[in-house]
Amino acid sequence: MTExxxxxxxxxxxxxxxxxxxxxxxxxxAIILDRTAFYPEGxxxxxxxxxxxxxxxxxxxxxxxxxxxxxxxxxxxxEETVTGIVDAVRRFDLMQQHTGQHILSQAFMHTANAETVxxxxxPDPTDGALTIDLNKGALTPAEIDRAEDFANAIVYEDRPxxxxxxxxxxxxxxxxxxxxxxxxxxxxxxxxxxxxSACGGTHVSxxxxxxxxxxxxxxxxGTETRIEFRCGRRALIDYRRKHQLISQAASELSIxxxxxxxxxxxxxxxxKALRKQLVDADARLQxxxxxxxxxxxxxxxxxxxxxxxxxxxxxxxxxRMASLLVAQPKTVVLLGATxxxxxxxxxxxxxxxxxxxxxxxxxxxxxxxxxxxSPDFAQAGGPAVNEEQLQDTLxxxxxxxx
Length: 402
What we know:
Elements: E1 3-4, E2 14-25, E3 28-33, E4 35-36, E5 50-52, E6 55-62, E7 69-73, E8 81-86, H1 88-112, E9 116-121, E10 130-134, H2 141-156, E11 161-166, H3 168-172, E12 186-191, E13 195-198, E14 213-221, E15 224-231, H4 232-252, H5 260-295, E16 298-300, E17 303-311, H6 315-326, E18 331-338, E19 342-348, H7 356-366, E20 370-374, E21 377-382, H8 387-400
Parallel strand pairs: 1-4, 17-18
Antiparallel strand pairs: 2-3, 2-8, 3-7, 5-6, 5-8, 6-7, 9-10, 10-15, 11-12, 12-13, 14-15, 16-17, 18-19, 19-21, 20-21
């Protein structure tokens, strides 16, 4: 069985080892060593990366059959003796985040009696999210702030963090945050006097090394709450990115960043008023356009026909226009638009008995669209077509009306 050196020293970055087996995993060469400092994915913590004799280690897994550590490689490695180098930046980032998760989870237990039911650690150090799901779906912003303050207080106290394997008697005496998932070789990670958790992952040696713990998002998910947070350098990167965005926005608006909320509120109110003015103006313009179309109506025996097409108009515009036009007695309209998408609306005034639903379905089918409706008001949509196709189909529909 491979000796797992990271249990004894999570800061170990280089080591010597002997190859004891060579296998293939999903088409990749992989080796098993007599000892390793590479952490395999497990317990919510992603696997380490690095090199073995300068050959890239692209993944590290635990073989389910016998719990051996598999080092998946970018190329075959032929030597029997290897020098392993663990990616130090990645490893320390994962140590910061994982230890920070232990602290924050216990802080939520202390301040809100909220238990962590799952944990996810994204391996991306620049934009990777950490999340914990809590078994409480009604956490207030104040409760979240209290847990965050409590967690950071533990960081500031720079408490020792230790890990050890325990027997059944020792296990029973520990105030574990949650029961272990395994029954043998139980390893306890302790943040001195604060948190005791069964965990096989790698952790910093003192809580101060975690750095700032910052909750960046809270999302209610049924009876649970998902907390997204960052620790250490990830928290710094997140703050730096947001500070740059806020500073840029404030600069472009020629205001201080502390005025952003008021300025945004004012701009939203102004935008809402302008949208209303635009909607009102558009409605008046549509009424004018409707009158122009009615003035050029085509006589068709006992009814008048209006056929019209537009570019870059949506179905809502066509429906409003049709409603304006068929308010005129003895009127049939065949309207179409294309641009981002196809829209068709066929309608008639209530004093006529022409069934336009069947005609619309046939016209839409010619253009690759679908639709339906009632005999007096039918609509269809589909992928955009060119103007000539739309005109040809409207002309065909016009002819069907005799």
